[in-house]
């Protein structure tokens, strides 16, 4: 999660709700998931722009 946060921050993308999904860390098959959470429209547009740039 920290790697994702650092990379996004470096690209100017801040997802305030980024966190580990605790439910995915419990039980027998521990397969932690990262919950990207919520963001405002401006940040969603910034994320889309960054992703488009990476896809080229």
What's this, in brief?
With 56 residues, this protein is α+β, with helices and mostly antiparallel strands.
Please explain how this structure is put together.
The protein has 56 residues and is of the alpha+beta class. Helices cover 43% and strands 11% of the residues. It is built from 2 helices and 2 strands; from the N terminus they run αββα. The mean pLDDT is 90.
Give a quick set of tags describing it.
56 residues, alpha+beta, two-stranded antiparallel ribbon, 2 helices, 2 strands
| Beta-strand percentage range | 5-15%
| Biggest β-sheet description | 2 strands, antiparallel
Shape: elongated
Distance between the termini: 25 Å
Q: What's the average pLDDT?
A: 90
Determine Rg (CA atoms, Å).
13 Å
Q: What share of the residues lie within helices? A: 40-55%
User: What class, by secondary structure content?
Assistant: alpha+beta
Strand line-up in the sheet with most strands: 1-2
Q: Give the SSE order as H and E letters.
A: HEEH
Low-confidence stretches: none
Instruction: Say how many strands there are.
Output: 2
Q: How many helices does DSSP assign?
A: 2
